[in-house]
Amino acid sequence: METTTAAPVGTTTSRDRVRQVTVLVGAVVAIVGAAIGAGAFGGQPIAEAAGGALSATATPIAPDTPAFSIWSVIYTALAVFAVVQALPRQGSDPRLRAVSWWVLASMLLNAVWIAVVQAGSVGGSVLVILALLVVLATVYVRLVRLAHTGTATSAVTDVTVGLYLGWVSVATIANITAFLAVAGVGELGLGATTWSVVVLAAAATLSVAYAVFGRRRPTLVVPVGLAMSWGLTWIGIGRTEGPVVDQTVAASAFVAAAVALVSPIATTLTARRR
Predict the structure, then answer these.
(1) pTM exceeding 0.90
(2) What span, in angstroms and rounded, lies between the C-alpha atoms of 39 and 48?
(3) What DSSP line would sit under 107-167, residue for residue?
(4) What is the pLDDT tens value at each position of the chain, 274 positions in all?
(5) CA–CA dist 119, 117 (Å, integer)
């Protein structure tokens, strides 16, 4: 049975200090590197890299351009997390001990993903983003299973990882779809619209799975739903206007977005009643 009581905090060790400093420095390097690679300081934007394979109009599952503004929120949250975990009193925090290295790995993988896309390898980007998703899912599982420690620290950690995981989950399906388009796999007999609906249904199912598993951690699972709903909503908006209009895909994306938004709220409330 899951526990929601605070976990005991032990003595900070030299290994804890090394972890704190490494994660802080690594976070700065990864975030700055990702921003430069994404074109924030005048370089080539991701939408123009790899022949535009990951642009907002490349496939029916591509989120519209405003969706990517969520990265500014995620990067800010990651920076706050890096600072909070480096505070002297947080050295022995059990949850931070369990996930900080993994969070750093996710930031580095994100920077690697940008570098791979800028190098023009859409196939390589799929492998990297899948690795990123696995790392974030691992952090998610650990945070669900570990009791909260300090209220503020746990909230920062949960919200950061939740938003990050939610967005990367949507980005992964968009990335894989882009790779299949570039690889010329075709529509596999079902057609682009039908396959898009299938993929969106899978995304909605994944959001429900996250919600059920994390139902006792609202500070974690609700941000996952918010980020997934954000990305799915912009897929829907992107299919209602512009060069890739598909009303069926748009409607499916909006339904999936609603499922992603409501599921964590419903499962959390149900868990509390029990």
Answers:
(1) yes
(2) 10
(3) HHHHHHHHHHHHTT-HHHHHHHHHHHHHHHHHHHHHHHHSPP-SHHHHHHHHHHHHHHHHH
(4) 344 444 445 789 999 999 999 999 999 999 998 888 888 777 789 989 989 999 999 999 999 999 999 999 999 999 999 999 999 999 999 999 999 999 999 999 999 999 999 999 999 999 999 999 999 999 999 999 999 998 899 999 999 999 999 999 999 999 999 998 888 776 666 788 999 999 999 999 999 999 999 999 999 999 999 999 999 999 999 999 888 999 999 999 999 999 999 999 999 999 888 7
(5) 5
